[in-house]
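Memo to structure team: turn this sequence into structure tokens by end of day. - J.P.
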Amino acid sequence: MNANTSRQHPAEWDQEAQLLAQTARDLPTGRHEFQRERMMAQIHEQARREAHTTATASPEKARRFRLPRPAVTLPAMAAALSAVVVAGMVTFGGGEGVRESGVATGPALTTDLGTATTKGVPQLLDQISLAAAESDHPTVKPGQYIYIESVVADTFLKTVDDKTSLASHELHRRQIWNSPDGVKGWLIDPAVNDSPEGETLSLPDEQGNTPKADLGGPSYDYLAKLTTDPDALLAKIYKETKGQGNSPDQQAFATIGDLLGESYPPPELYSALFEAAARIPGVVAVDDAVDAAGRHGVAVARLDETSGQREEWIFDKKTHVYLGSRSVQVKQLKGVDALMKPGTVTFTMAIKNRAVVDDMKQTPSQAG
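Reply from structure team:
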């Protein structure tokens, strides 16, 4: 959503940002994760895990969502949208100026639950790590851009006029460009953008803030400086995500998963991430998982006991190349969350292209 489409006065932005943070703090434990990037676009469950960070971050950082996850990356206006998020639901009123970006009319996404087992997980992650280390991975130079094209869809709880139901953004193409320093970027996603041309993600934001890159919003340059020692890397992840998510182990797994999507880790780090994941308790292998493009693969996964959802990283069964990810409801919950039946796919994403290009909004085909 572009800043000039809002009818709100700038003085109201800070008030709504504070309201959002207060709402997140008042949620029961484990319910923070639905929130953050999905406020207006309502895109996918993975955005849930960062709501605690939004509630506790400084106002400057809370207004700029620079997350690598395959979710909605909204500009600074995101914190001032006329949407109130309560207990994982996006609630829309009928007030003037309230607009829904990316109309969500699709049916709930469902899947068969694959069989999860701890057997062979270290071996599988070792194979994936080796494949990552051997992948073609050109260095990003200053002035170039990391281009990532994916297809995404999601299912979520939506409340309109006190009536809650399941809705989804149907499968659609998403394109994002980021400079190696993370300062310049562009996003095209019909579930987010009002314009088919997309919108800028470049910094500084409307308040003049340029958030420093970190694990929750990394740039290529930031990732290139991280340790590639698996033990040290995992220790850093636990330390920097302390207090986030539903448990330290789940948040560590989620953080690594985020780095596999809309970021571009150098080969050595990419390989180390999988070695680090092998050290997280509760990680399992799922015999069959399907990405958003319909490709079947084997998944490395972990069940979030609080939300009842299993985050799955999907890999080709033969080459062990990363295909995409999805979050699947595995446990039956109570209350309004009971609408999310086991087998509901709350988020699904498939990477279609990841490349280095010379210009903003340039695609690999145009570069070739």
